[in-house]
Specification:
Layout: E1 17-18, E2 26-27, H1 33-50, E3 55-59, H2 67-80, E4 85-89, H3 93-97, E5 101-109, E6 112-119
Parallel strand pairs: 3-4
Antiparallel strand pairs: 1-2, 5-6
Helix pairs in contact: 1-2
Length: 124
């Protein structure tokens, strides 16, 4: 099966359109990094509200977000933790402060890595 232009239909891609508050409808590729991250997270979280998954890994999704949007991200993440367990890979201090458990890798001596874990949830 070939696409209308003769190419492979699996290579055609998808053009996502979004309209952040106060902006006109436009392609996601024209948004800033933070707007793209929020749009992607909004889509992912909407899917999770509709059909929760038991587990989700998020890798540095909060990196392009400013403090106000980190707060929004964490609020929705907390709402969804009753249905889904999230593993969030991050360097953001505010995101780490919201976690129940932290895992990290430290190198006390050159070439010798050590795994460190901290349980921040007094009940667990």
């Amino acid at each position: 099966m070939e696409a209308e232009d003769g190419g492979d239909p699996l290579d055609t891609g998808v053009d996502l359109m979004a309209q952040p508050r106060g902006k006109r409808l436009q392609s996601v590729t024209l948004l800033s990094g933070g707007e793209r991250a929020l749009t992607g997270l909004a889509l992912l979280f909407a899917i999770f509200y509709f059909r929760p998954s038991p587990f989700c890994v998020l890798d540095e999704v909060d990196a392009p977000l400013d403090d106000a949007n980190i707060h929004r991200f964490l609020r929705v993440l907390r709402e969804l933790t009753s249905q889904t367990q999230f593993l969030v890979i991050t360097h953001n201090r505010r995101t780490m402060e919201a976690a129940d458990v932290l895992y990290g890798v430290t190198m006390e001596e050159p070439g010798l890595s050590k795994l460190v874990s901290v349980n921040l949830n007094p009940d667990g």
